[in-house]
Amino acid sequence: xxxxxxxxxxxxxxxxxxxxxxxxxxxxxxxxxxxxxxxxxxxxxxxxxxxxxxxxxxxxxxxxxxxxxxxxxxxxxxxxxxxxxxxxxxxxxxxxxxxxxxxxxxxxxxxxxxxxxxxxxxxxxxxxxxxxxxxxxxxxxxxxxxxxxxxxxxxxxxxxx
Length: 161
Fold this sequence. Notes:
Layout: H1 4-12, H2 18-22, E1 26-29, H3 30-37, H4 45-55, E2 56-59, H5 65-71, H6 76-88, E3 92-93, H7 97-105, E4 110-111, H8 113-122, H9 130-138, H10 145-154
Helix pairs in contact: 1-3, 3-6, 5-6
């Protein structure tokens, strides 16, 4: 299960192909696909559309109680993604702070984009994390300095002071 932000970020950095190598299945609600690919001139839109065509499974939007309750505080894509993750009993790739708090409260396993990069390095899919992090930052993906330092330290690419 993935929300739009991490998909767009991975598309801009040309690393969408990491996802099916790390996760057995990639599920997306239609709302997330619309958010990412609805305007084909937006950066990453065409790459995500092709990636989903090859590697993803798109599910119809949901209208269950879980979705309706959290639509009040989350955007459409996040609400749909969490509802679907709950229904499929799978984790969710999500970096939005409010969404992560709610998912954790609901017991939905969470994955963040930097965690995906760290796992990719552990599996030998990438050699280093730091250039990809630099690329994410250059493409206006918001990440905390503290989180970046922790991930780079765990990846063996950063010395703690």
